[in-house]
Amino acid sequence: MKKYLLYIFVAVLFACNNENSNAVKQEVENSNKVLTANDIIDKSIEVSGGDNFKRSSLKFEFRDTYYQALRKNHEFLLVRLTVNNKDSIFDMLSNVGYERYNNEAFVKLDDSIAKKYEASVNSVHYFSVLPYGLNDNAVNKTLLGNENIKGKDYYKIKVTFNAEGGGEDYEDVFIYWVDKSEFKVDYLAYSYHEEHGIGLRFREAYNERYVNSLRFVDYNNYKPEDNTMSLENLGKAFEDNQLKLLSKIELENLEVQLINNQ
Fold it and tell me: Matching PROSITE patterns, A to Z (predicted)?
């Protein structure tokens, strides 16, 4: 009987050793894996809240305007509420499209004006939950390499958009600097079309906080003094103090509720 129990113990011990060995081997293999842009963004989304964004109700204020976002699986409703005297203007963007209401009355808008309002609403909500959203079908990601900013090492990732599904501003180009150790987005930059050419912005994240498991940050919003500077060089320009602070992007009175998907 003792001999039989000894055989069982040895067999279990051998299995455990194999399992531990395989786990260590897998960990070593993962640590040596060359990460792609998709891998890096996946990790960044995960540490920022992951799938909980897909079942969330968010409320916040930005520049004295009220915003609310409801996301459930692949459905979403993004709202902006502007109070003008006694009127409440609701801009609502969902899977169905964009609509505007004045109090409870539907407002018919020309397509050009509607697209402008839609882009404005989407922009605030888009920036509020980054990097969530960077795995949408219309998003293209390219790893440009590594860059050191303020003594920290970052993955540098370029993001472009397809015309189909990329929204009104699909020609905008973004760069994200993702911390190589924590996989959090500390900086981002983007180029956009404006009346007299291409505009450039660089944002520095600060005031990180987690609200009900979701990560939020505020931003210092910069622009280059030199309009001929390239988007790819904005990180170095920030390092060299060549950017001008324009504004602060601050989300106030944040509330988060997680929704049961059942």
Answer: PROKAR_LIPOPROTEIN
pLDDT at residue 73 above 90? no
- 25's enclosing H/E stretch is helix 2-32
Picking from 116, 136, 113, the residue whose alpha carbon sits closest to that of residue 126 is 136
Q: Could you count the other beta carbons within 10 Å of the beta carbon of residue 224?
A: 21
How many CB atoms are closer than 10 A to CB 56?
Answer: 23
Looking at 96-163, which runs of residues are DSSP E strands?
Answer: 98-102, 105-107, 139-149, 152-161
In angstroms, the CA 80 to CA 61 distance is 9
pLDDT greater at residue 212 or residue 33: 212
Phi, psi (deg, nearest 5) at residue 141: -120, 135
CA distances from 203 to 51, 68, 223 (A): 25, 23, 9
Over residues 151-190, the pLDDT tens digits come to: 999 999 999 999 887 677 778 999 999 999 999 999 999 9
Q: How far apart are CA 27 and CA 29, in angstroms?
A: 5
174-194 burial, b at 16+ Cβ within 10 Å, e below that, comes to bbbbbbeeebbbbbbbbbeee
Q: Are the C-beta atoms of residues 153 and 131 closer than 8 Å to each other?
A: no
**pLDDT digit string (tens) for 40-68?**
999 999 999 999 999 999 999 999 999 99
Which of 236, 112, 92 has its CA nearest to residue 168? 112
Domains, the chain, with CATH or none = 41-254 (2.50.20)
Q: Is 169 helix (H, G, I), strand (E, B) or coil?
A: coil
